Amino acid sequence: MREPALPEHEIVARIEAALYSAGRPLSLDELVKASGTNSKEKTHRVVNDLAKKVKSTFRAIEIAQLEDGNYVLQLRPEYTPLVRKFAQHPLLPSGALKTLSYVAYEQPVTSKRLVQIRGSQVYSHIKVLEQLQFVEHENLGRLKVYRTSPKFQNYFGITDLNAVRSRLMTATATTATKANNQPQQRSTTKHIPSSAAPAGATTVGGGATDAQLPEKT
User: Fold this and answer.
1) CATH number of 94-210
2) Fold for domain 8-75?
3) Is the full-model pTM beyond 0.90?
4) How far apart are CA 194 and CA 81, in angstroms?
5) Distance between CA 160 and CA 135 in Å, rounded?
6) What is the per-residue pLDDT across 70-108, written as a single tens digit (0 to 9) for each?
7) Is the dihedral of CA 101, 105, 106, 108 positive or negative?
8) Are 25 and 72 in contact (CB under 8 A)?
């Protein structure tokens, strides 16, 4: 026996609940499952209508459609610096965030290089980052070569990755010059200076930068 169709308000509520609780972008197929319907067209219409309602009701929160077609309930990028100190539940643990920052800085970067910089725990970090589609790889013999993905750039609002990397390298050279003039032992580990961090990044202690995803509320 065929189950009765869900009322419109229940479909809207389910999609709203899925976007709120996921803490990550959701595909249309995932939203179809959450909605309790089998219709992509209906789900697409409902989520777009919901995005318009959120836009007209809230000023700091939005439902955005990413370049890959996924949807995310997120804080508008311009409010991220304001609320960063209040966020308690980042999408990624700090270790994975730092690994992401090194991939963004040194890319293309081999798995061997990442292990040298971050240690053997980098494998678990990369697994999470690939699951979230923030990094991607290609095989080079027995090694894997990692880069950030288009989704990473979209998520952080980066339109010109080469320009960001150029600023990072310039700032790193400046930081290294200052460090050479100080009477202290130099570290051989490459750090990303906080002054060169891309939009959406958060600095954590010292000069190293942990690439921080925008907090979701």
Assistant:
1) 1.10.10.10
2) Arc Repressor Mutant, subunit A (1.10.10)
3) no
4) 14
5) 16
6) 899 988 888 877 776 776 666 677 888 889 888 988 889
7) positive
8) yes
